[in-house]
Amino acid sequence: MQMKDSNPPDGGYGWVVVVSAFMVMGLTAAVLKTFGLFFVEIQQHFDELASTTSWITSVTIVIFHLGAPLASSLCVRYTHRAVVVTGGLLASSGMALGFLGLNMIWMYATTGFLQGLGISFSWTPAISIVSHYFSKRRALANAIASAGECAFAFTFGPFFQWLISQYGWKGALLIIGGIQLNICVCGVLMRPLASSSLHSETETLPGNGTSGTDKEDKFAMAHKTFNWMLVRRPEFVLYAIFGILAAMSFFVPPLFLVPLSYSLGIDETWTASLLSILATVDFAGRLLCGWYANLHVVKMVHLLTMAIALISTSLMLLPLAGSYLSLAIFTGFYGFFFGTTVAIHITVLADVVGMSDFDSALGLFMLIRSSGGFVGPPLAGLIVDMTGDYRAGFYMAGATLVLSAGLLVTLDQLQLRKERGSQTNAKSEKSALPYPSLHLLKLQNRRYQEHDVVV
């Protein structure tokens, strides 16, 4: 395979793939983000505690993260198209079967497990294939694709509320399941490249137009994807713990924002608009932070630390709201800074581990982070049950983010120490060679002598 065969088109049909990924983001992540509209309906129907009901979202989140490495492996084995179509069928069946509403265990298995696995099998390859189709415009393509989550969440808020009011929560789940079948259509449009594989960009050696055998390339990529030795690196461990704490907090506000507004006596129509506001400012935060990060004015980890600190402040202030206007303002602040975090947290991960280990780090990061998404909502629900106030869940989320910001500060200090240590070592090595040019000549003469002996 020649280098010219593996170069991405950087346009053309790639834009069809971007639009398809845009749709997939909306039909997966946006559905998960607005599922809080069903929380009270399901809780009242089964007469369960808030902590028990919140396990539905927890199961969805953890399966979404745990399924990501499996989805990537299937993309290598088969194609991105096949995995996305499979994900669409799983997600759709999960919602449609939730229509039966037999019991809470049934909801865990359908709208929890099946929906989470479907989202994982759709979201992961959709993001991946966009990177295969683009190189120079990859950042722009990924930004457009990821914006689907915010764009759909903006419309899904009032739309899902209307569905629930017209058809009940069970009928709404069935209709949403039918809508999610469009993921399969988007997957079919994700046409594989002629030389498409997860290692298409890494199999060609620099300065050499040829590549190794397919077996060697697949082995190298498998080794790279499953590099478990990263868990021994202190920087990665700190960032992974940050991911756990962040995941514990990030999924709490969308889940309890609607019940909190109901407890304040806000009308259902206005409540649904809060999720639309959240999606709008989230979208703006992603774009603005992405633009600002590209200016390289501030170190990336510093920018992330500031965003986390501002999110925690917003969550601490949000429960103080006593009307729709004040609640909408604090929701807007939270959504904006959440968008800034989403825009750069993966970039910070690349800075922490380096691009050579980025693929394996991303898989491990999502795997480890899933524990936070699994524990966070039930823990917040338990606190709500104990206090009898939805505000307590937001205080828990804000306090957890304060701890995560402290980990980022520790990570930054650790990186600074390593940078200083490497600079000191470089200077000492340079001072040990007062005549570097003479040293290089001696090395070259020694190699020539060895070559003559071999000949």
Q: How does the SSE layout of this entry go?
A:
Blueprint: H1 3-6, H2 14-33, H3 39-46, H4 50-53, H5 55-77, H6 80-98, H7 104-133, H8 138-179, H9 182-189, H10 214-225, H11 234-250, H12 252-263, H13 268-293, H14 300-317, H15 324-353, H16 358-387, H17 391-431, H18 436-454
Helix pairs in contact: 2-7, 2-8, 2-9, 5-6, 5-7, 5-16, 6-7, 6-8, 6-9, 7-8, 8-13, 11-15, 11-16, 11-17, 12-13, 12-17, 13-15, 14-15, 14-17, 16-17
Q: How would you describe what is shown here?
A:
This protein is an all-alpha fold and 455 residues long. It has 18 helices and no strands. It has helices at 3-6, 14-33, 39-46, 50-53, 55-77, 80-98, 104-133, 138-179, 182-189, 214-225, 234-250, 252-263, 268-293, 300-317, 324-353, 358-387, 391-431, 436-454. The longest helix is centred in the middle third of the chain and has 42 residues, at 138-179. It is globular and about 70 Å long. Residues 1-5, 196-225 and 450-455 have low confidence and may be disordered.
